[in-house]
Design goal:
- The protein is of the alpha/beta class.
- The chain has nine helices and 14 strands.
- The chain folds into two domains: 237 residues, Type I PLP-dependent aspartate aminotransferase-like (Major domain) (Aspartate Aminotransferase, domain 2, 3-Layer(aba) Sandwich); 125 residues, Aspartate Aminotransferase, domain 1, CATH 3.90.1150.10.
- Strands 1-9-8-7-4-2-3 form a seven-stranded mixed sheet, with helices on both faces. The chain has a three-stranded antiparallel sheet with strand order 12-13-14. A two-stranded antiparallel sheet has the order 5-6.
- Helix 3 links the parallel strand 2 and strand 3.
- The chain is globular and about 70 Å long.
Amino acid sequence: MSANRPMERPKRRPNRPHFGSGPTAKRPGWSVEVLRDALVGRSHRSAPCRARLREVIVRSRELLGLPADWKLAVMPGSDTGAFEAALWNLLGPRGVDVMVFDSFGEGWRKDVQEQLRLADVRVLRAPYGELPDLGAYDPSRDLVLCWNGTTSGVCVPHGEWIPLEREGLVLCDATSAVFAVELPWERLDAVTWSWQKVLGGEAQHGMLALSPRALARLAAYRPPWPLPKLFRIAKDGVPLAGLFDGDTINTPSMLAVEDALDALRWLEGTGGLAAAVARCRRNAAILGAWVARTPWVDALAARPEIRSPTCFCLTLADPAVRALEESRRRELVRRLVGLLEREGVAFDIAAYREAPAGLRIWTGATVDAEDLEALLPWLDWAWAQVAAEFAVNARAEG
């Protein structure tokens, strides 16, 4: 890698430098004032608090177009807690296919094989930046997958490969896909997400949506393992009715609930799901066009049709950098993101710790396109500084 000639420091700065992938940027215009009516100091079991929790469920259902016969609940533990509840309650009576193409899919694979210790498990795996062979899925088996891989920048492009008529259930971690893509609900059975992704909400609360087929499994099947209290969504085979009407398994934060309601109202006021999807696509297109004209980066997902609309993952493309050991590449990234953070133009954009060294830039609906456009010259400027420093050090070492 040769030293780049000095670049002028960009003058325009992003108004909001929050490009991290979770918790993500708050919605445009957000301020702490939106929390002024939060029901703090009240029991979450009181009628007013249950009404707020029920409002989160109702507004989410309406925005997403959730089928009328599905159930939706607020769960503890963010998306992780919601998806763990689905795994622990629903898996077991059939063989399971697990799709792994990012670190979170690998985490679910470990849960299925190492915690639940199911015997009949097939792992359908792809390297970072690619999808597994979707045609290898067997619809007679249960399926576990992430729809949008935030650590690989890869998103399932459609659901046509999942048959409408199938014997197994489809358990989908959709935390970075909900409100960003139009999910094929009729091809899914248990879908989870959190408020801290496309909504830009606060952490620690998740959502669990169950189809009639999933509810039937919940009623007919008793898992052979002990269920932690936080995962108990049924009693004696009967789904907890109150859980889908504003009750919660443990105490929720009413501040976080108020913040989620603000985000949902914002989405409604800006055009609903279609507008949110369009904002994500526009933002991702800005990054895609920059990558196409920028020699020092590549998209980790080389095929545009499978790129995430919310989480753009980048690798360092310079041949000299590719030849370095992974630890050296990570050091370059550390210097790059550190410089950007010190300048106050981008926070928390290093690639996920288990992903290849690179950058990860959130392009979800709460990010303004103008801020992404302002960020790009800073990325080029910061890389020029890091490249020059690297070249000087390399000459000194050589």
